[in-house]
Amino acid sequence: MNLHRTVAHEVEAAFAAAALSGSPIVLQPAKNADFGDYQVNGVMGAAKQAKQNPRELAQKVADALADNAVIASAEVAGPGFINLRLHPEFLAQKVAAALADGEHLGVATATQPDTVVVDYSSPNLAKEMHVGHLRSSIIGDSITRIYGFLGHHVIRQNHVGDWGTQFGMLVAYMVEQQQHNAAFELADLEQFYRNAKVRFDEDAAFADTARDYVVRLQSGDAAVLSLWRQFVAISLSHAQEVYDTLGLLLSPDDVAGESLYNPDLQQVVDELGAQGLAVDDDGAKVVFLDEFKNQDGEAAAFIVQKQGGGFLYASTDLACMRYRVRRLQATRLLYVVDHRQKLHFEQLFTTARKAGWLPENVHAEFIGFGTMMGKDGKPFKTRSGDTVKLADLLAEAVERATGLVRSKNAELSEDEAQRIGRVVGIGAVKYADLSKNRNSDYVFDWDTMLSFEGNTAPYLQYAYTRVQSVFRKAGDWNRNAGVLLNEPLEQQLALELLKFADVLNHAADTYMPHHLAAYLYQVATLFSRFYEACPILKAEGALRDSRLQLAELTGRTLKTGLDLLGIEVLDVM
Q1: Distance CA 47, CA 59 (A)
Q2: What pLDDT, in 10s, does the model give residues 58-92?
């Protein structure tokens, strides 16, 4: 259920009863639970229009809400605010309904689903994935999970860099290594790239061979294409290992690399030229965009073909967008890319709109994100200043978490410690990122992210485990008993649990997973307070069953919410 919408409907009806139909109102959750569950603003503006006293008008609205099935009390505060308290019986009914809805917890699915194409991760296959790929990968994955949960048709697209002149060099080097060693396997992609670059720079004959491979590759030579596919397959297997470790939904079926659009690039440029959008500029094909003028009033140049006929990212991205709209029938295009690419995508969207490849009924959104920083305030690097391989970072996360788990529970078997360490370590890395506003840079700190206190994955995972421990001790109980919300903390926890749909829709609308993370932390914190103040297992009869139901909905909400962030939970830690 959408709790906010339900309450807003009642308030709008009360405004209409007070002869203020159509007046703008603002309904927001109360910041201080001691004063109510929601606060109504906007009365003062309505009073000004109606030329009435704000407090008197607020009282009329409050009176109209009396004896309401949803709202237990409406009290005027200050110059014209209204504090609302929801009926415990109403909350109890909705808690029962959420529990009856299985794993969907009362969250309604979209009545008009979008076909959402989410472009994320997108590594360059010429090198191993590094920490710079982490944010796109996990933010994009969480967005796909949330949109899928809300009932939309989601298509994941991993737009990998698998084309370009460097692949001639890499294929040539792979052939050379296989000639020397028939059993050669590409184990370290990063080192392989460096070795190939050294050979290219130092050996003129090798460089000529590599350039010949480029020409043959781009002309569609079957033998070279076969070698290129072999290199791409090996490189993708490296990336997939990282995705599997991270627990991403991305699979080989989601890969749609730059090479897919290569046959369409010239047609894209030709169509832009035929429409008068792309013009010749010193041998290059350029779309001049008045929407992006510089300080001198000159239109921005969006180059779609280089001098000599070469293509650029702009050419590929236009062909890609056209493909996703025409072939994939996308109604929403989401690009989860480093914020430094924002201008490129804004110009891309504008050009595609002008060309008719991005119709008005298709929404395109650039979902940028900041940089992962080290404690020194600079982009996260190794001590020697090198880029950190993502696989190495994740291995260290698991190692650190496993050691932490052993220190807290020495009785665990080695296999159990490893299993729990993997879930805690990977969850900690992901949550440390997803709990931050994606637009901001953030500092990568092992100690903070692996802490069992504060807004961290281990804290939330432990909160879920704590709920499960209640049920291991509970024995038989009546899952169909009525929900009783007599204590303030019972009501607060129930109210928070019923905001789940609101939070998910807000996270989807804003493409901000950190709203979901903050909500889950609030749920876990409230459950801890409820657990201490309202004994569950020591209660008796209907009260015990009721509190167990609140605990069950808490556990389900934490598990589902963390899953939507791509984070696993454990029954025992």
Answers
A1: 12
A2: 888 889 887 788 999 999 988 888 899 999 999 99
Q: How far apart are CA 53 and CA 80, in angstroms?
A: 9
The kind and range of the H/E element at 71 are strand 71-77
Percent of the chain past pLDDT 90, that is, above it, reads: 69
DSSP-derived secondary structure letter, 387: P
The per-residue pLDDT for range 194-207, each reduced to its tens digit, is 899 999 999 999 99
Q: What is the pLDDT of residue 426?
A: 98
Q: Which residues contact 420 (CB under 8 A, 6 or more apart)?
A: 401, 402, 405, 412, 570, 572, 573
CA distances from 517 to 131, 424, 431 (A): 21, 16, 8
Partners of 124 in the β-ladder? 161
Mean pLDDT, range 370-381, rounded to an integer: 87
Checking if the pLDDT of 128 tops 90, the result is no
Q: What is the 3-state secondary structure (H, E, C) of 7-30?
A: HHHHHHHHHHHCCCCCCCCEEEEC
pLDDT at 21: 64
CA separation, residue 140 to residues 136, 155, 418, 430, 555 (Å): 6, 11, 28, 12, 25
Higher pLDDT, 227 or 158: 158
Kindly report the length of the chain: 573
- Say which CATH class 422-564 falls into: mainly alpha
Q: C-alpha angle with apex 318: 298 to 267, nearest 5 degrees? A: 105
CATH topology of domain 131-367: Rossmann fold (3.40.50)
User: Strand, coil or helix: what is 130?
Assistant: strand
Q: Could you give the CA distance from residue 176 to residue 173 in angstroms, rounded to a whole number?
A: 5
- pLDDT band for position 175 (50/70/90)? confident
Tens of pLDDT, residues 257-274: 999 999 999 999 999 999
Residues 142, 145, 149, 152, CA torsion sign? positive
Architecture of domain 3-86: 2-Layer Sandwich (3.30)
Sheet with 115-119, strands from edge to edge, namely 153-157, 115-119, 332-336, 363-367
Q: Cite the beta strand spans of 213-354 per DSSP E.
A: 278-281, 284-289, 300-305, 332-336
Taking the C-alpha atoms of residue 429 and residue 393, their distance in angstroms, rounded to an integer, is 9
Per domain, the residue ranges of the chain are 3-86, 131-367, 422-564
Give Rg (Cα) of the chain.
28
Residue 536 φ then ψ, to 5°: -95, -60
Instruction: Give one DSSP letter per residue of 487-533, joined into a string.
Output: SHHHHHHHHHHTTHHHHHHHHHHHT-THHHHHHHHHHHHHHHHHHHH
- Mean residue pLDDT of the chain comes to 92
What pLDDT sits at residue 53?
85
Specify the residue for token string 């159990």.
416
Please give the structure tokens belonging to residue 245.
């470790």
